[in-house]
Write a structure and sequence with these properties.
This protein starts with a helix and ends with a helix. About 65% of the residues lie in helices and about 5% in strands. The protein has about 400 residues and is mainly α. α4 packs antiparallel against α11, α6 packs antiparallel against α10 and α6 packs across α11. The chain is globular, with a radius of gyration of 23 Å.
Amino acid sequence: MYFGVCVTVLVTASWVGATHCIKFLYLRRNTYASTLPPHLTAFITDGTTDTVAVGAAPDQNSTSAMIVHGFGPTSSFLPSTAKPIITSDRVAPPVTAHVFNAPFFASWFCTNFAILFFPIYILGRVAIKKCDGTGEVLGEILRGFRDRGFTIGRFLNRCLTFCILWLLTTYLYALSLKALLATDVMALFATNVACVYLLAWVILQEQFVGVRIVAVILCDTGIALLAYMDGITGSPTLGGVVLAALAAAGYAVFKVMFRKVMGDPPVGQIAFTFSIIGFLNAAILWPVCIALYFTGAEIMPWETLPWVVLLMASVLLLVFHILTQFSSAVTYNMFVTLGLITAVPVSAALDIVLYGAHFAGMKLAGIILIAVGFFLVMFPDNWPDYITRLLR
């Protein structure tokens, strides 16, 4: 139980940190209005002109006025009650239009860090059992795959499928952060537990639990409320919600198919598989990033690319995935899953402090319904027996 609490805290911290780092990559920063408070000069609204007026009195008919606010790069991040601030006093140089807009590259870069799964496992194994060398551990893992009927070709084929599915899920998640706040995306991603239950019931023939169907309905209702929280016409919210929901569904498919194909392998085999997934991602899928860059589909300003933020997001995602895969060796899986939903209120607090976000109306109702559905999915299979014992 003590290990479980620590795992929940670490999962929450890594998941929130990684999501907000990815979100930060998209934000256009104003480097000229340095005299104003940071939360007012941090971000500039897209759709304005290319010059910043931090000087003369704002002219309604002038194209040199710049709205500075602390919410995000597009108007979709602004709550309905937000009042932007128009700066005045001096005219600053133009702001470059080249901002980071490469969600696929960010997803590919973060996925490359999966290569470190097996080296981290080796270091831990050698530290615990100093008599085991790297060759001995690797030989034990390969024998385990061979005994389960995996050939080299079959194993690499399965790993490539998992690699594409994992990268696609990460890409959808990163893409949805362009149109939604981090808290909204994390709440929508938490619905993957309901998708996992449905797929496990159909594909893995797991036990049917009636209360989990209610949980699925609640999660779907929450998704619908978030989809229409800003109306239907002229709002990018609906597209962002669809992308985040697809990311949750993709992650659920990845987890269920991994259990279907790999079964319940030891930790060493899991670490080796994820390292191969990261290696295939780095070795095979890099031409896609190059093609997107040269065709202009993605914008990567190399001179101003926030490498530190990108590295932080990659490391935090690696920590998150290591915790989700390895924590079952020391505690219950429930604590790992619980970290996904506890990250939502933590992220909401950050959104309120950093971007002045407001959670009310349909948005708040949708997040609450998703949270209730999340906890219902976590009910044990024999939950009626517990209630009967409590009543007796």
